[in-house]
Amino acid sequence: MAVLAWGGMNIEFAPLTAGTPGTYTALDKKPVLDSFNLDSDDGDELKAQYEGGDIADYKRLANQPYIEFDRFVEKGTAKPIPDNDGVVTSEYAIRVIPEDTTLEGRQMPRCTVSVKELWKSADGIKLHYTFRGMKPATGNVLQPYTAPQA
């Protein structure tokens, strides 16, 4: 049994309707090796400064988490999320389930999605997906998720 949530994971996503996730769909293919990444952009820094540059007060805004991964475009497969020149107009929820499903994964209940097409002679065509978290109705942007056990 693993102690770390690493290795091959399962990615599930669902379109939002009135702010609520619909039925989750598993990504039909595993991501490209070592392409999966969960990271955050640092929140903006706000400074109130006196004339001359001394700082009166300082505030940091919330981090902005995102999930990104690449997926090979294989013969006979459709895009898992429809887009128009890389723009996905619907909001989505995403959850990531570790290889060992008893371990804690992560979810973002409200995201924007973008996709860009990449091509290299060594890899062929790939789709690069980015899910950028937005504040949901309740809770944090990035939340723990553990899959139900059978």
What does this protein look like?
This protein has no helices and 11 strands. It has 150 residues and is mainly β. The chain has one domain. The strands form 2 sheets. Strands 1, 2, 3, 4, 7, 8, 9, 10 and 11 form a 9-stranded antiparallel sheet that branches. β5 and β6 form a beta hairpin. The relative contact order is 0.24. The mean pLDDT is 92.
Structural key phrases:
150 residues, mainly beta, two-stranded antiparallel ribbon, nine-stranded antiparallel sheet
Short description:
The chain has 150 residues and is mostly beta strands.
Q: Please provide the count of β strands.
A: 11
* Biggest sheet record: 9 strands, antiparallel
**Unreliable stretches covering 5 or more consecutive residues:** none
Percent helix range: under 10%
The chain-level structural class is: mainly beta
Which sequence of SSEs, written as H and E, runs from N to C?
A: EEEEEEEEEEE
Assembly type of the chains comes to single chain
- Tertiary shape: globular
Distance between the termini: 17 Å
Summed up, the helix count is 0
Cα-atom radius of gyration? 18 Å
* Mean pLDDT over the residues: 92
Percentage of β-strand residues? over 45%
Q: What is the secondary structure topology, with strand pairs?
A:
Elements: E1 10-17, E2 20-21, E3 25-26, E4 37-41, E5 45-49, E6 55-60, E7 64-72, E8 92-97, E9 105-120, E10 124-133, E11 143-145
Antiparallel strand pairs: 1-2, 1-3, 1-8, 4-7, 5-6, 7-10, 8-9, 9-10, 9-11
